[in-house]
Amino acid sequence: MTKHSFLIIHGLGGSGPDHWQTWLAQELTKRNYHVCYPTFSNFNSPNKEVWLEELAAAIATIPDNHRLTVITHSLGCLLWLHYAANQNRRIAKQVVLVAPPSPTIVLSEAKSFYPVPLNGQQLPRTAEDTLFVHSSNDPYCSMEDAEKYINIGLPSITFPNMGHINPNSGHGRWPWILEQCLASEKNPVIV
Hints:
The protein has helices at residues 20-30, 48-59, 75-85, 122-126, 143-150, 175-186, and strands at residues 3-9, 34-36, 66-73, 92-98, 127-135, 156-159. By secondary structure, it is of the alpha/beta class.
C-alpha cells in the first residue's frame, strides 16, 4: 500500500494557530499521515529565492515511496508556481492552490514573486492533478484576475463569498479541504 504525505505551504505572514492550514496539519497528523508544514523565513517580507530553497529542502524530507499532496494558500500558491516552472519531473500526485493572489497586482511585501509564471505546461509535469480554488470576493484577487489562473486550463473551483479563505473570513476550521485530502486516499482526482 502506498503511503501518503502532505506538504502544506503557507503564504505571506505565515498561517498562525487559527488558520485552516494549521488545523488541517493537526487533523492529518492525528490520522497518522506524514505532514510537512514548514515555516518559511522572513514570512512578512519574503524573498522568493530563499523560499524556493526552503521549499526544495522541505520536499527533500518527503519519503520517495510516498504519494504527495501539496496544499498551498495565497503567496504559497505563487511559490509553488515558481517552483513548478523550474521542474521537469513529477513531484506530487495532487496540488491544491487555494486563494492565489492577483498575478497582476504586485504585493509590495513580496515583489520578488512577480511576475507570476502562468504557463500551464509546467503544472501537469510536476503534478498529476492540480486544482485552483478561488473565492468570488477575495480582496487579493478579483474574479477578473482569477480568470488568468482559470485560463491556464486546469480544474478550478470558485466558492461564493469566502473572502481570502483565511481566519479573517471565518476559515480557521475548513472541513471541505480535509474532505478533499481524505478523499484523495480513495479517489486520486480532487473534485
